[in-house]
Design a protein that fits this description.
- The chain has 225 residues and is mainly alpha-helical.
- The protein has one domain.
- It is built from 12 helices and no strands.
- Helix 1 packs parallel to helix 10, helix 4 (36-72) packs across helix 9 and helix 7 packs antiparallel against helix 8 (133-140).
- The two termini are 22 Å apart.
- Residues 8-212 form the Urease accessory protein UreH-like transmembrane domain.
- The chain crosses the membrane at residues 6-30, 51-73, 79-101, 131-152, 164-186, 198-218.
- Keywords: Membrane, Transmembrane, Transmembrane helix.
- InterPro entries: UreH-like_TM_dom.
Length: 225
C-alpha cells in the first residue's frame, strides 16, 4: 500500500501539465479584485478544496469497490481492478507524451454531471472573501479530468474507504506544487511542463510504473489461481 501512495503522488506530480492546462487559468479568476496577499490565500484555499474533493472521491470509490468485492465473494476482483489501474496508467502515460489521446474520451463521461455542478462554482465568482475559494475548489474538483479518473482506479483497489481517501489525497498533494506555482504566476513551471523533454520523461515514467503494476498484478492473479 505504501508503494501505491508514493505512486499516486508521483503520478500527480508528473501529470500536472494536464491539470495546469485545464485549471491553471483559474488563478487569474481567483485574483480578480484582490491584492497579492488575498490572492495567495485564495489560491491556497482553492487547492485545499480541490484535494478534499479528490479524497472524498477516493473514499467513496475505495469503500464501494471493497464492499462489492466482499459481497460478491470474488477474491480475484480487486486484482483485476489493479490490472485495470495499470492499463489506465499506461493510457495516461501515452496521453502525457502526446502519443495517443484516448484519455480524452474518458473525460467526456463526466461532462453530463459537470454541466449541473459547474454553475454552483460560478456563483462564487468573483470571490467576496478569500476563504470562499475553499468551497469553489471543492466544486471544481468535480471537473471532468482523465488524470483524476486514472488515479481513482488505484483508489478502487486500495482495500477500503480510508485507504482510498489517502491515495487520492497523495495524488492531490502531488499536483499541488505546480498548481500553486502557476496560480501565483510562475509561468516557468508551465513552460517546463510543456517542454517535449519533460513530457517524454514524465510519460515514460508513468508507463513504466503502469507496466510494473500490471506485471505484479498478473503474478498475484497466478498465485491466487
Amino acid at each position: 500500500m505504501t508503494a501505491d501512495f508514493i505512486g499516486a503522488f508521483i503520478v500527480g506530480l508528473l501529470g500536472t501539465g494536464h491539470c495546469v492546462g485545464m485549471c491553471g487559468g483559474l488563478g487569474a479568476l481567483l485574483s480578480i479584485g484582490n491584492g497579492a496577499y488575498k490572492s495567495t490565500v485564495a489560491i491556497i484555499f482553492y487547492n485545499v478544496g480541490r484535494i478534499l474533493s479528490y479524497s472524498l472521491f477516493g473514499a467513496l470509490i475505495g469503500g464501494l469497490s471493497t464492499t462489492l468485492s466482499q459481497l460478491s465473494m470474488l477474491n480475484h476482483s480487486l486484482v483485476w481492478l489493479r490490472i485495470l489501474s495499470a492499463i489506465m496508467m499506461i493510457i495516461l502515460g501515452l496521453y502525457v507524451g502526446r502519443w495517443w489521446f484516448g484519455l480524452l474520451r474518458l473525460e467526456k463521461l463526466g461532462t453530463g454531471i459537470w454541466k449541473y455542478i459547474s454553475p454552483l462554482g460560478r456563483k462564487l465568482l468573483p470571490l467576496k472573501k478569500s476563504w470562499h475559494a475553499l468551497p469553489f475548489g471543492i466544486i471544481w474538483g468535480w471537473l471532468p479530468c482523465g488524470l483524476v479518473y486514472s488515479a481513482l482506479t488505484w483508489a478502487a483497489v486500495s482495500g477500503g474507504t480510508l485507504e482510498g481517501a489517502l491515495i487520492m489525497g497523495a495524488f492531490g498533494v502531488g499536483t499541488l506544487p505546480s498548481m500553486l506555482l502557476v496560480g501565483l504566476g510562475a509561468t516557468q513551471i508551465k513552460q517546463l511542463q510543456q517542454s517535449p523533454t519533460f513530457r517524454t520523461i514524465a510519460a515514460i515514467s508513468i508507463i513504466c510504473y503502469g507496466i510494473y503494476t500490471g506485471y505484479s498484478s498478473i503474478n498475484m492473479l497466478i498465485n491466487l489461481s
